[in-house]
Fold this protein.
Amino acid sequence: MQNTKILICDDDKEIVCVLTILLESEGYIVIAESDSTRLIEKIKVESPDILLLDIWMPQILGDEIIRLIRADSDLNKLPVIAFSASHNTEGIAMEAGANDYISKPFDIDDVLFAVNNLLK
């Protein structure tokens, strides 16, 4: 876990804060981005080991971002955990190419399990 970077993209500052505290307490380096239009560039600059991405983002939706990541040969191996408070978005996320999906409100243990599982 040491030096493992996790990038969180969510426009809800409270969600980002909770996830940051949780993941940093587990030893992860956490980077946050609230603007989906800057996310691809942030991924290229930061080279995260995993992306936690809200599906319902302003400007560019999470599923569109996942498709952009999967279409880019430099980024397409990046593990993505999508999440949302909306019902019926798991299928959208998985069809776009997410590796995993977590419903909001999420259980902390579920987040840690998903992150640890994808980093194995």
Notes: The beta strands are 5-9, 29-33, 50-54, 80-84, 100-103. The first helix runs from residue 13 to 25.
